[in-house]
Design brief:
48% of the residues lie in helices and 15% in strands. The chain is an alpha+beta fold. The chain folds into three domains: 55 residues, no CATH class; 135 residues, Alpha-Beta Plaits; 84 residues, Arc Repressor Mutant, subunit A (Orthogonal Bundle), CATH 1.10.10.2840. A hairpin with a 2-residue loop joins strand 6 and strand 7. It is elongated and about 75 Å long. InterPro entries: CdaR-like_regulators, Homeodomain-like_sf, PucR_C-HTH_dom, PucR_C-HTH_sf. This is PucR C-terminal helix-turn-helix domain-containing protein. Pfam families: HTH_30 (PF13556).
């Protein structure tokens, strides 16, 4: 369809984010792309026809700072930063909202108030955006991210999901990193139930998401064997592994005596032949159990 439209509108371009709103008319093409056409190429009749099968992009964001303009150019137009631009490490905090904020300026001010320094906030739509943290500021100087979510949810009456990327050190590759972070954020919402997810949290799920259902089921049955339907036992092993194989900590989380926990762990080892007290065994069983939970 895009190529056919380009024959009618030679100026048509695809982008992850609208830009140059004064000269281009933008339409939503799919979940991750928008298309822009020079306004001078579109008649009133053309716009009505295009609007029947494309969603006009009408989002208007709050005024942006100089830093935000630079980052928008880097992330959406693949512009190269000037030599004077900060070469500090950086990371992206990608956020999604269940509904658009009624007062965008107030929402922006609420986010900025939670940081010790002003941070660029790059809006991608009325319900999605990215906070850019520059420089590896000690976590102790930030409000905990789950507290940030609690504050924003209580103030604006909406659910918020945060995905925290790892730190990056090559500003020249920021555009590529950003695109991958958006993909990772989608996977984090697909598998993780919490409001705050880090890259490290989803690494096992990145592997899982590359497999089809047949491959997943084969792997789960091959590793878990006859315990695959024993959800109580699998839950016990899951908590044990998630507690860094610390028997006392896991027993406390499960509200059971550590001897009872040890009995269940030994029972699992006996039934599967996999020693989950060793790193290699713990790793493959942990991933297999994560896959097993996705079947329900």
């Amino acid at each position: 369809m895009i190529e056919e439209l380009r024959e009618l509108f030679p100026s048509l371009i695809e982008s992850d984010q609208p830009f140059d709103l004064d000269n281009y008319r933008w339409f939503t093409h799919n979940q991750s792309k928008v298309i822009g056409i020079l306004k001078q190429e579109i008649t009133e009749r053309d716009e009505k026809i295009l609007s029947t099968f494309l969603q006009p992009y009408s989002y208007v964001e709050a005024a942006v700072t100089d830093q935000e303009r630079i980052w928008k150019g880097i992330l959406f137009q693949d512009q190269k930063p000037s030599n004077s631009f900060s070469k500090d490490s950086y990371r992206f905090i990608h956020f999604t909202l269940t509904e658009p904020p009624v007062d965008l300026l107030s929402f922006r001010e609420a986010i900025l108030a939670l940081y010790p320094v002003e941070v660029p906030i790059i809006w991608e739509s009325s319900q999605e955006g990215t906070i850019v943290e520059q420089g590896e500021i000690p976590e102790s100087e930030y409000l905990a991210y789950d507290q940030i979510v609690d504050v924003l949810m209580s103030d604006f009456y909406m659910n918020i999901h945060l995905f925290i990327s790892p730190y990056f050190h090559d500003i020249e590759s920021a555009n590529d990193h950003y695109k991958q972070v958006k993909k990772d954020s989608i996977i984090s919402k697909k598998y993780q139930k919490g409001s705050v997810t880090t890259y490290h949290d989803i690494v096992p799920y990145l592997f899982m998401d590359s497999l089809d259902d047949t491959q997943k089921k084969h792997m789960v049955h091959a590793i878990l064997g006859e315990t695959v339907e024993d959800e109580e036992l699998l839950h016990t092993v899951d908590v044990f592994l998630s507690s860094n194989s610390n028997t006392s900590l896991a027993a406390k989380k499960l509200f059971m005596h550590r001897n009872s926990l040890q009995y269940r762990v030994d029972k699992f080892i006996e039934k599967t032949g996999i020693d989950i007290k060793q790193f290699e065994g713990a790793l493959i069983v942990y991933i297999a159990i994560l896959m097993r939970w996705t079947f329900d």
